[in-house]
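[job 0412] stage=complex_fold ligand=pyridoxal-5'-phosphate status=START
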Amino acid sequence: MPGRPHLFVPGPTNVPDRVLRAMHRAQEDHRSSAFPELTQGLLRDLQPVFGSTRGRPFIFASTGTGMWEAALTNTLAPGDRVLAVRFGQFSHLFIDTAERLGFKVDVIDLEWGEAVDPARIAEALAADGAHAIKAVLLVHNETATGVTNDVADVREAIDSVGHPALLLVDGVSSIGSLAFRFDDWGVDVAICGSQKGFMMPAGLGMLCVSPKAMALVEHGRFPRAYFDLRPQVVHNDQGYFPYTPPLAHLFGLREALDMVAEQGMPAIVARHARLAEGVRRAVAAWELKLCARDPESRSNTVTAIVVPEGKDARQVIDHAYRRWDMALGSGLGRLNGKVFRIGHLGDLNAGMLLGALALTELALHDAGIAVPYGAGVAAAQRWYHESA
Ligand SMILES: Cc1ncc(COP(=O)(O)O)c(C=O)c1O
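[job 0412] stage=complex_fold status=DONE, emitting structure tokens
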């Protein structure tokens, strides 16, 4: 189809032309004496995106999934017990990774669409007087359901019972888009990837690791090879990597971090909140339900929309893709066919989202869900106008 396709999955997100151009250049020697400037600048400028001055950032050629493994294997010992909440497909997969690595996972299962209740975490940790639980695994923003958790409340819950467990937080669909305060929230390892808030293609996995967790990395007993943070430390300190780094991605990240610095994280967070509210108002005008139950926990990076009983969300997604050249996010795991998702994160503005909402209305019609033409668009327009 002529014209640009519309990408509204919650990652990969739209890559700005500036970032694409920065990636489209000749390769360089990653062992040259000039290279440390790039490496050290990236690691330095990642810190504020994590909301940290004391956490240590790492960059891998990987994705978010690899960073789950890196976070677990660098800070825990074989067979350790951990506590996790499952409330969507990504929290499920984080748990699955931990189990496949041989960790014993105490799972708090919630309805998919609910947010984590910190009191349940406090209760589980309070029952662990021997401190056998070594870490709490938390997905900050559950991309499958469009639910954002309050990490500060989870930290408070851990502290309220005086439990020393580490707090490992998946920020794959939040970091770079939503407020993330690594230091203030007492996060021990934050996990993210390049293809969402960082406005890049997939291919980089990134971590931020607290001093407390770094001390464990040093003496960790879990076998590690590629994801071992120890050789990273040695090489990064000199401005290099222990392997051939994906140069195009690093050049892209340089440009993306410059864009983040130009906009400033507070403005980026505010833009995501404003754009998300327009989507939610459109959904209300369509008289459709959000998967996220609690208004307080509705995500500003992704909205999961429940289709009416008897309708198939896959139809909405397929018509959007084939007839209207727009990619919407699918329902994952047990939500398959029940929800479709609109990703609203990264390099995005109101005009792009209004286009997406107009096309979503067409795809809803195609799937037999006859919302009034323009109802959602008008509701979002009103909001964008009054909040401009
Ligand atoms: C919250 C969350 N965690 C982890 C992942 C997995 O990341 P990746 O696909 O980069 O491996 C995703 C991917 O969408 C995600 O949304």
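Residues 17-262 form a domain with the Aspartate Aminotransferase; domain 2 fold (CATH 3.40.640.10).
[job 0412] exit 0
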